[in-house]
Design goal:
Largest sheet: 5 strands, mixed
Structural class: alpha+beta
Number of helices: 6
Length: 174
């Protein structure tokens, strides 16, 4: 069963990396707000706090299905790796000619030697938990593939007990 799941996950990731998505004008502000709703129950039941700062009117040229998946990955990642009773953040803001979407949590910093591997397929920082919670180390690899297909960048910052993944995408030109 596990090998079947691994094959499916490899196919999904390869597809995200190699297929050129159909692009259109997307209201990223509205999309991010909509993707946060399904996570509210999970956050509440986990005893966590999901804070959001979503700027209005941020538009990008993108594929809404993939951008929803990207947003969900960032939210899910922040929730799964946050400490109980602590804060998670989802932020969308404009920065020069970019939309910056970030998912952050209070939690243990990721050691520098592991940071360079986080966006690789099947990489997990804790090898003892591989497959334990039906996560196979593909989320950040898929997030990177989506980001790159949208001519953006994805990166990580760890400081002051906060881990933040942030995506920069070009703003839609008026």
């Amino acid at each position: 069963m596990r090998s079947c799941a691994s094959k499916i996950m490899r196919w999904i990731t390869a597809r995200a990396e190699n297929v050129k998505p159909q692009m259109e004008a997307v209201d990223l502000s509205r999309l991010v707000c909509g993707e946060m709703l399904p996570f509210e129950t999970v956050v509440y039941e986990s005893g966590l706090f999901l804070n959001s700062e979503i700027a209005d009117g941020i538009r990008v040229n993108g594929n809404s299905v993939q951008l929803k998946q990207l947003t969900s990955i960032l939210i899910d990642n922040a929730i799964r790796h946050g400490r109980d009773g602590k804060n998670q953040w989802i932020v969308l803001r404009k920065e020069k000619n970019s939309a910056v979407l970030s998912g952050a949590n209070e939690g243990p910093e990721i050691p520098p030697e592991q940071r360079k591997h986080l966006f690789e397929r099947f990489y997990r920082t804790d090898s003892a938990r591989t497959g334990e919670d039906n996560h196979y180390g593909l989320g950040l690899a898929i997030a990177k593939a989506i980001t790159v297909s949208h001519q953006g960048t994805i990166d990580l910052q760890c400081r002051d007990g906060k881990v933040e993944f942030f995506v920069k995408l070009p703003l839609l030109r008026a």
